[in-house]
Amino acid sequence: MNHRFTLGVISDIHYGPDSGTRKGSKATLMLKTFVSKINQLKPDVVVNLGDIISDVVSDPLEAIAYIKHLSPIFMSIRCPVIHVIGNHDCIVNIKTLEEVLQSELGPRIVMSEGFYLVILNTSDPPINGIGGNIGFVQMRWLADTLKSLDRPCIILAHHALDEQNIQANPLFKGIEEYAYVANRQQVRELLCQAPVKLILQGHLHWYHVSRYQHLLFITQTSFVDTWQIAAEYPINFSIISISAKDIQWYLHGADTFVRLT
Questions:
Q1: Which of 106, 114, 162, 239 has the maximum number of C-beta atoms within 10 A of its C-beta?
Q2: Mean pLDDT computed over every residue of the chain
Q3: Nearest-CA neighbor of 52 among 24, 21, 80?
Q4: Is the pTM of this model over 0.90?
């Protein structure tokens, strides 16, 4: 692989009423700004790592209305867009979500620029509406899929699959176990046996990088959250550029604080 493969990464849009430090009510305006910037940056693919819907939206019909506002904005991106389902998105039936977003959301594999993108549903099912899990059928699918790969792959997930110092994150105080995929150790055992180049994940509303054996984990912060830095329009996203030799990570928006473990 002599060229670079570039991804635009966004997560945890939380569109809906503001909640705590999350500026969800401004999500449409911020997403339009993001699209303008991303169309200038011209990545090969844009990845949305889930939680389009605000955590305070409890009515499925209201959630669908919010998604209908966002869907045409996503469609104005001039490259393929891959959506990953988040725990708050599960308030809406997955088939309805797919129809509104005009995108698949379940576990699947996509080929792009010489890479396999393996998309997981880590809300299978969500634990108490927050935590992550990968069910038996999906685990069997993942094992079979990884065995079939003949080139590098990138894993896309909403919940964290690594281990982090989550006690430092006030958003998960008292619910630390809900930061992760419950059966993440079993998932990592599968990933360690495959040509996994990178794992991209969201959910935790902070930037984080870690390694486990040969696996590299990057956590994308929330698009709208301001708990680490005051900003009226945070517009947090990143660009990840991958070659055979290295991975380059460029942060955009108000929050540029990264934790390493």
A1: 162
A2: 96
A3: 24
A4: yes
Return the structure tokens found at 232: 């009226």
DSSP H stretches of helix in 44-135: 60-75, 94-101
Please report which confidence band the pLDDT of residue 103 belongs to, taking 50, 70 and 90 as the band edges: very high
Q: Which fold has domain 5-260?
A: Purple Acid Phosphatase; chain A, domain 2 (3.60.21)
Separation of alpha carbons 93 and 60, rounded Å: 8
Short-list 191, 204, 175, 261, CA closest to 51: 204
Annotate 109-137 with DSSP letters as a single string.
Answer: EEEETTEEEEE--SBSSPBTTTBBB--HH
Maximum Cα–Cα distance for the chain, whole Å?
48
pLDDT digits (tens, 9 = 90+) for 195-214: 999 999 999 999 999 999 99
User: How many residues belong to the chain?
Assistant: 261
Q: What one-letter code names the amino acid at 58? A: S
Closest CA to 14 of 251, 256, 227, 246: 227
